């Protein structure tokens, strides 16, 4: 049976109460967050930046990023109201710089070119229409903005067993994309300079980094008037 957003929402609603205490915070989420913050710092330095964190959960990464880069403005988006509700204390503490939004990754409620960075850590395998989600990420990034997308690395035997066997058995028919599949999706969405880095460990993950391309100018048509065959004939006869 195909995995859909209703299943994802129900699963994360059940998980929301124990989300901040689960073992994955230590095994996977913490290392992923550190990798993202390190990369953003390397690219942006201490400049003020706007960041959209898709699949933000209870806001743990958003609060860590804001603490590391105090000049940043972070919007956390999640499909599940229960996840956002469980992060209420974090949202209040950072209320002037971190903003929670309930929304769908396939229809991001933001104008084109709104963000310098988009992050998405360890939720992408729950997205039924991954290509549409990445196309939306490209749309709301500024030209030259960066997408940093992390998900489980399943191309090696250990990662395949964890993500394609164990996680699929527990969470349903979710889909961890291969590194090749990620490159295909990012290329089709219009991203450039795609780079990938594998982080090894008990729960290995793949960091995909890509740069949003400049929009293609609209073609305004030829700068001449096309005459009809009859008008050309009349002119030649005169």
Characterization of the model:
The chain has 238 residues and is α/β, with parallel strands linked by helices. It has a single domain, classed as 3-Layer(aba) Sandwich (Rossmann fold). Helices cover 42% and strands 22% of the residues. It is built from 9 helices and 7 strands. Strand 1 (50-54), helix 3 (60-68) and strand 2 form a beta-alpha-beta unit. Helix 6 (130-140) packs across helix 8. Residues 219-238 have low confidence and may be disordered.
Topology:
Blueprint lengths: L4 H11 L8 H21 L5 E5 L5 H9 L4 E6 L2 H6 L1 H6 L4 E5 L12 E7 L8 H11 E12 L4 H15 L7 H11 L1 E9 L5 E8 L16 H9 L1
Parallel strand pairs: 1-2, 1-4, 2-3, 4-5
Antiparallel strand pairs: 5-7, 6-7
Keywords: Methyltransferase, Transferase
Protein name: Demethylmenaquinone methyltransferase
InterPro entries: Methyltransf_11, SAM-dependent_MTases_sf
Name the strands of the widest sheet in spatial order.
3-2-1-4-5-7-6
Which blocks of ≥5 consecutive residues have pLDDT under 50?
219-238
Strand percentage, roughly?
15-25%
Q: What is the total tally of β strands? A: 7
The CA-CA distance between the termini, in Å, is: 74 Å
Helical stretch count? 9
How many domains? The number is 1
Estimated structural class: alpha/beta
Give the full name of the CATH homologous superfamily. Answer: Vaccinia Virus protein VP39
CATH class: Alpha Beta
Listing every helix as H and every strand as E from the N terminus to the C terminus, the arrangement reads HHEHEHHEEHEHHEEH
- Report the helical percentage: 40-55%
Main sheet properties: 7 strands, mixed
What global shape is seen?
A: globular
Multimeric state of these chains? single chain
CATH topology: Rossmann fold
- What is the gyration radius calculated from CA atoms? 22 Å
Can you tell me the CATH architecture? 3-Layer(aba) Sandwich
Task: Please tell me the overall pLDDT.
Answer: 88
